[in-house]
Write a structure and sequence with these properties.
The chain is mostly helical. It has 16 helices and no strands. Bound molecules: magnesium ion. Magnesium ion binds next to helix 3 and helix 14.
């Protein structure tokens, strides 16, 4: 199982980055425009002319992965909020295609604002949930759940300082923790897919109108999984295609579960929905990468990814540090 854990950690980090880079050129396009030219997105393209990402080359990723890399860098000498803040500040102002909340928060940090006050009080963009996986890996198997949740909450708060973002990040981390433990054929059974989404829907989501919306959209995902697969326009109608947490988390989960056996199908479908394609493909890629492992991500996409060796080394260091912590203890349990 130790091999599985390392493959899952590498899969989550690299799967997110590959998805981000595949989705990057389509950011902001409606699904119709993408479908007119492509059936499947399985190779890297440069950033689109006339957009903030136009200078990016094929295989380059955006803010979602830059924040993950910064987080992994902050883990290198032992994690603290101060180290995370230091790494985040280094990204400013050259962060690629960040949403308003993240960009403003980084600007606040650079101007010596406290990380407790830098975050957007109303921001409900997905920037806080696409960077949560490193924390899940770092604290995997830790029994002090409250401490782990507080750690994630304080990291989320740096950019998104509100209940919706924190709760959604904790729900996302719960999903990812579960995916690390599952065998990579678990979702072959429809019943398991439905049980999985049902358990997520049961999480408390009534504290804000946005969380209630998140729960309704997760119910839509369950509905989609129960019935014949709808076409892309129906999917967009039922799931929404923006980068708001309430739309991005359910849509990413949906594309992952609809093609759980194939990393590339999940990520390509996530892009074909249009809208916030890079963040959705990043989160879908994280889910799929954790569940299937790095070994199921096509090799040509890994080698074509910007700074892939550095990313792999950072993820590998993280996995090794957890394995050392658990060496000799049978923590890598499978529980359904
Ligand atoms: Mg992005």
């Amino acid at each position: 199982m130790e091999h599985r854990f390392k493959d899952a950690v590498l899969g989550g980090v690299l799967g997110g980055a590959v998805g981000d880079a595949l989705g990057m050129p389509f950011e902001g396009l409606p699904s119709k425009s993408i479908a007119e030219k492509y059936h499947r997105i399985d190779y890297y393209l440069p950033g689109r002319k006339g957009t903030p990402l136009q200078t990016l080359r094929p295989g380059q990723y955006t803010d979602d992965t830059q924040l993950v890399v910064a987080t992994l860098n902050a883990f290198q000498q032992g994690y603290s909020i101060a180290r995370l803040v230091h790494e985040f500040k280094l990204l400013f102002p050259n962060i690629r295609g960040a949403g308003k909340s993240t960009y403003t928060a980084l600007n606040n940090l650079v101007n010596d604002c406290s990380p407790k006050k830098s975050g957007d009080l109303l921001g409900i963009g997905c920037g806080a949930i696409t960077r949560v996986f490193p924390f899940v890996a770092l604290r995997y198997g830790d029994d002090d759940i409250t401490a782990c949740e507080n750690e994630i909450a304080s990291a989320v708060q740096i950019t998104h300082n509100n209940k919706t973002a924190t709760s959604a990040a904790l729900i996302t981390s719960g999903i990812l923790e579960k995916l690390v433990e599952l065998d990579a054929n678990y979702f072959n059974r429809k019943k398991n897919r439905l049980d999985f989404i049902s358990k997520i829907i049961e999480c408390p989501m009534n504290e804000t109108p946005e969380l209630k919306q998140l729960q309704r959209n997760l119910m839509n995902v369950k509905n989609i999984l129960q019935n014949k697969r709808p076409n892309i326009l129906d999917l967009r109608e039922k799931l929404g295609s923006t980068g708001k947490i309430m739309e991005l988390l359910p849509s990413s989960l949906c594309f992952f579960l609809l093609s759980s056996e194939s990393y590339l199908s999940s990520v390509s479908d996530a892009i074909m929905l249009g809208g916030d394609t890079d963040s959705r493909a990043a989160l879908t890629g994280i889910f799929s990468g954790v569940y299937l492992g790095k070994s199921k991500i096509p090799e040509y996409l890994l080698t074509g990814l910007e700074k892939h060796s550095e990313l792999e080394r950072l993820a590998s260091d993280l996995a090794s540090s957890i394995e050392r912590r658990f060496s000799g203890i049978s923590r890598y349990r499978r529980s359904n």
